[in-house]
Each structure stands twice: as C-alpha cells, then as structure tokens.
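example protein:
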Amino acid sequence: MKIEHIAMYVQDLESCRQFYSKFFNAKSNSQYHNPKTGLRTYFLMFEGGARLEIMSRPDMVEGVHDLLRTGLTHLAFSLGSREQVDLLTKQLAEAGFRTLSGPRTTGDGYYESCIIGPENIQIELTV
C-alpha cells in the first residue's frame, strides 16, 4: 500500500503551482475546472512518484494557519544531500520565504531545514 496523493486547498492556485514547479521540479497536468462548483485543480507530480493535488474554489473558507494546530503540519521533501538542503534553503530565503529553522542536525539525527511556503504551509527540507 502507498499514499496515492495528498490534496490541499489553496487561495492562489497559480502561484502555488509555480512554486512547486520552480523549487521542487514538480510536473503539472492541465488545469481541471468544474463549472458547476467552480473547483479548479492541478496534480503536481514529483520525482519518485509522489503527487500533490492543489485545489481552489470560490466558496472556500479561510482557515487558521497555526503551526501547532491539529491536522497536517508540514510537507517534507528529501533532497538527497546536505548540500542540496543548504542550497534550496538559501534559494528559498533569497526568494523571500521565511526560514523557521536550520539547516541543522536535529536531536534525532536528521539534517533538515523548515521554511514557510505559499499559503503558510510549512515545508521541511531533508537529506
């Protein structure tokens, strides 16, 4: 068994698609649009087969973006090396994304950094 995909609602569909494409080499399908509900979606495919569905619709309700809330807390991307974690952390910071921590070695031995991406989603970069 494997997780087929993760889906999340976003306010700005296009900027999220561009972010994951630019920084994480995601490949996007063509936008799906349901004219009845106004739903618009993209599936973003990552190296290794993971998929993220980003969705937007006009009747969405803005949620609370608190890092300590229940539910999904972050998306983690394995980059393959410490050098790649360092490089992408630097590139994201230079692009204006806030770094929460790292790069650093955690108490349980992981090398990682955490940033806040579009829509206030916490993104963990790890080896």
User: Anything to note?
Assistant: Residues 45 and 51 are 5 Å apart (CA to CA). DSSP finds two helices and nine strands in the chain. Residues 82-94 form the longest helix (13 residues). The first strand starts at residue 6 and ends at 9.
